[in-house]
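Q: Got a minute? One more chain.
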Amino acid sequence: RSIETVGGDIDKHILLNAAHMDDDPIFSVDGDLAFNWWYGDNGCRIAVTGGHLSPADVNDDNTHGLGNHFAINPLTCKVNHPQWAFEISNIQNCPLQTCRNVR
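A: Always. Here it is, folded:
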């Protein structure tokens, strides 16, 4: 769990007609880059601090970014539920109501 940049975006290029921008966990928020953000039985490889960063002891499936892992021990990489083992990188692909509308 580390925040590795300071000062937010240096440069950002997004197509004017890009789809799903309202719920994109990377391009819909500003902030610094957070790496290996583990929390509860989940983890996210790359997230943005302007989005939701769950506290370490909260298992809410609500930190979204690139390389999300759900139902896994993020410290040992032991999978708890194989159907949730790997990435759900976009919020629109999350089947849980609790992770809707959270960036």
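A: The beta strands are 2-3, 33-39, 42-48, 66-70, 72-73, 78-79.
Q: Perfect, thanks.
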